[in-house]
Amino acid sequence: TKGKYGGIGASVGIRNNQVTIIDLIEGYSAERQGLRIGDVIENINGEEISKSNYDEIGDLLKGKPGKVVKVLISREGNHEPILFELVLEEVEVKNVTYYGFIPEESNNAYIKLSSFSRAAGSEVKQAIYDLKNRREIKSIILDLRGNPGGLLDQAIDVAEKFLKKDQLVVSVRGRDTSKVTHYYAMEEPIAGDAKLVVLINNNSASASEIVAGAIQDHDRGVILGSQSFGKGLVQTLIPMSYNTSLKITTARYYTPSGRCIQKIDYSNDNKVITGFAEAKDKAYKTDNNRLVYGAGGIEPDTSVTNKSSSKQVERLIAQGMFFKFATKLYNANSDMNVNTFSDDEYHDKFKQFLSEQGFNYSSHAENLLKELSKEVEVQKFLAPLKQKVDELIVESDELKTIELDKYRKDVVASIRNELSARISGIEGRIKQSLENDFQFDIAMNILNEQQTYSTLLAYGD
Q1: 454 belongs to the catalytic site
Q2: pTM of the predicted model, to two decimals?
């Protein structure tokens, strides 16, 4: 919530069952001293690290600035482990992880807001002012995808940059429903009348939904993407002894039109919590009399999915194969850029890598065929079908290679995204990902088509 901590400036997660560096914050100890995305942490201060004690890593890698932490890592392509002596620093986590004009020569501003810690509002404000100093802003894409939320006051602060002064941002209602706290925009919007599209997905929650809901209810901009998470509850943190805190759910958020965006109904089969749910088909109206619905997150004005249509590509992402491939390729070519290899070269190298890794993706249909093959063996009278079933299994295996070629664009985009993170950090990953971002492309189309934009917001109706 404070947006600061004493640490090395790296994000750590589980990849391929190993504790791995998954992101680096530019300018801090981990990045400056040479840690790389994909490095596997083997030991911290003499303590062996594995998936089993992953939860303890926060305590080992965080502390008072100035403290030295010894981290032993293994790296793809290195035969021996590498020991780093990292100095803990006060790390300030950015809320705005990237902003710029995209396309570069256009008047369309893109702002990626990844969290709502203490400085979120001021960072959005600074980003807009910085962009205004370069040239006029005619349209803005505010990207809240994957933003899990944070502080209520920062959600209000961010919303103020786009809403008119004195417009309602959000209401908070506790157990006593007669007492409602209303929060209004207290300043003139610095974004002016620039057209606005807000991108959300099912990982946009809490403060993200407050901002998206306020913009939608006041018809300030178009909400695009997939339905948000649906976290409409207010938590209060109470500090306690022994370095602990108690988090209590004390109220619910309501958008300006009056809808509660909480998705999970905790009153189901619950003898303590009653009357919690809101009817899912209950309609509310925006300022322009558009119908919107509560009890399930923020429903986009335009629903657009960004997932690959290939189940095989989804499985490759889930199993970290693009992450692992990019790590191997970058460690073998650390002076490379994303265009060092052509799309065809990336695709061919990746298929070779999958073969070396022994990666095997079995679809649901393929598993059913294998079960059928076993059943045919058991049922003797079906023996004549055995050869035909096995031929189908071989054919389905060949079709998997064809599918990988069919979705070559998705494969290469995933590779380039991972490599950009290693070459140019978080900003590089975000900028690269926009080049193959269907939701972003649709947002640009809407902003460039005044009639479509106005129709979606019911202007003039």
Answers
A1: no
A2: 0.83
